[in-house]
Structure formats: C-alpha cells, structure tokens
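RECORD TYPE: protein structure
NAME: glycerophosphodiester phosphodiesterase
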Amino acid sequence: MRRTFRVGTVTAAIAATAALTATLVSTGTAQAGPRHGSGSTTTIATPTVFGHRGAAGYRPEHTASGYRLGAQLGADYLEPDLVPTKDGQLVDRHEPEIGGTTDVASHPEFASRKRTVTIDGVKTTGWFTFDFTLKELRTLRAVERIPDVRQHNTLYNGLDRIPTLQEDIDQVESLSHRYHRTIGIVPEIKHSTFFRSIGLPMEDRVLSVLRRNGLAGRHPVIPTVIQSFEVANLRYLHARTPLPLVQLTSATGAPADFVAAGDPRTYADITSAGGLRQVATYATWLGPEKNQIVPRDAAQKLLAPTSLVADAHRAGLKVVPYTFRNENTFLPADYRRGTNPGDYGDALAEYRLFYSLGVDGVFSDDSDTAVQARALWIAAGRPHR
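PREDICTED:
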C-alpha cells in the first residue's frame, strides 16, 4: 500500500522542524564564532551533519531547492555528486544516467540518445550526461528518484534544473550568509576511472573550479571536502591540494581503479588495520557504509558493532558513515515501525546508536532528524558504548 501525504501537514512539519533546528543552532549546539565579518560562524559541529544530496528525504536530490532546504534544516555541509557533460562541465547527479532523476524520457528530441553503456563493469541503459552539452541539460528538469518510497517528493518534480558545481558554490556561500553560520560543501567525484577512459577526467576540472572560488587552498573561503570511492584520484588530489579528502568504502566489492589496474585488493582490505593506515596517508576521513560499522543479519536485524570506528580513529582518521534515512525500508528491522516501507521508523534510535559508537559525522537525507538526534545525544551527556 502506497503511503499518502497531506501536503499542508508535511509542509507544516518541515517548517516546525526548521524552527527547532534554528533554535538548536542559535543555542550553540551547532556552531560558534565569527567568520570573515559576514555574520556567519566558523566552527562546524560534531558529529557533523552532511546533507546527503541536499535534502533528499524531502525534495528531489541534487537540486537548488533541496540544498536550500538542507541548509534550513541544519546541515553543516551540503553534498553534490559530480559528473561531467559532453562539453566537460561539472553537474550534479548521483549517476551519469539521468533517466531516473530527470524528465529526459519525455523529451522526444532526445529519444535517440538512449543507449546502453558499461560503467565500472555494470551495464546500464538510459540517457547519460556525457552525451549532452550543458546547454542541452538545461532543458531538463529534476524528478524524484524513488517515488514509490518518497511519493511526497513528487510534488516537486519539474521545478528544478540540474545545477553545476559553480552554482553549488555560489548557493552555499549565499546560504551561509542567510543563516549566519558556516555551511560547507562536500562534492563527490563519481566514476573517476570511467570518465578518464572516455576523455573526461574530472579531478583537474574540480580543482580548477575550486581554485577560481578560493576553495582549493589551506584556508578555503567556505569549508570544502572532496570524496571518492576510488583511491588513485584521491592520491592525485592529495598531491595537489591541502583540502581534506574522504575515502568512501562499501561493504562489498573494490575500488574501480583497483579493478581496472588488476589490483586484487577490496574495500575489506582498505578497511583493515593496515589498510586504514595507508588511507590516512592521503585522506582525513573514512566514509564507510553503515553496515561496515554495525552489520545486519539476513533478517536485517542489527548485529554487534565492528571495531571499524576505533580502528579508523587509531589510524588518525575521522569516520562519516552513509546513508541515514528515516523510512522503514532503509532502517534495520530493530527500528522499523509498521509494515509500510515508506513510513518513518525510529530513525532517532539509529542516529543515537552511531553517535554513541563515536562517529565524527553522518551523511543524512534528513538533516533535521540528524541535528535533532545530535542535540538529544549531547543533552544526554554524549553517552558512548
């Protein structure tokens, strides 16, 4: 049975949560200290809340309206995933295939662009950003990626175009001034090895945009962190910028650059004690999948936590797991409420668990929930397991 929403109720709830978030921030739960005379603040709270793809729990992901709402709901950083266009521009999409996140299928002028491409060993059929110029992509509009779970978000289908990295930076700076607090940006470079193989390497393009905006040096105008699931590109970036880097990992598989090079190491090797020491030579953060920290059994029930957080801390790394979401379908069975996959479960309990395990940040689709859980955990004296 599909969950239905009352628009007024949801809108009122978001507004109320935003007001609560503003109170939490203003009382010092989030940040403190002046920044460049702008009236905003400089110290990012811990655990840090990374607004995953904007505010994907409430708006179609990777949209200006989603980033704006993410900031309103208290995100400390906003996260755009980056992919290139045919003419080498950097735009925000979780994947280069855009059939599921835009209205491209309704544009007959682009029907012939649909094709099958193998990216990192996976065959995908659809429309791809690297077959479109930026001007062509500007004619498309964003839609909700998972409408069966987030039916409410379909209200906002068609309202936003695909942003560029430059627009992200401009918006984050504007939002920092608007909300009188520092908001950072944490772009993820997607499919580095694949894009290099088709003549669209991304790393220097990303650095070029960041440098133009004063974000690539030791003291960026706004806090800036770069992330990737691959290793070679993070090492490349480490040699060219002092910015903090996030080594993302998965519970299965291996970095695409390792696979392409015939390197047999996997993400399990990277997150071993020795692997983490290697990661610490080029990255500041480890970004593991949640179940690398707290595994689940076949019934999605929680198992005993692993030592990954402690191991990473011993190696000198901060830890920011992904992805925290409020809906039952994404939560462990322990925290689900009812049987509807799209209904909210006890997401606060999941945050409390991970905060108590010592994570330094969270990637969240629902920044308001992450901020509220953080405030409750701090008020309880920051209990640790």
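COMMENT: The domain at 7-379 is CATH 3.20.20.190 (TIM Barrel).
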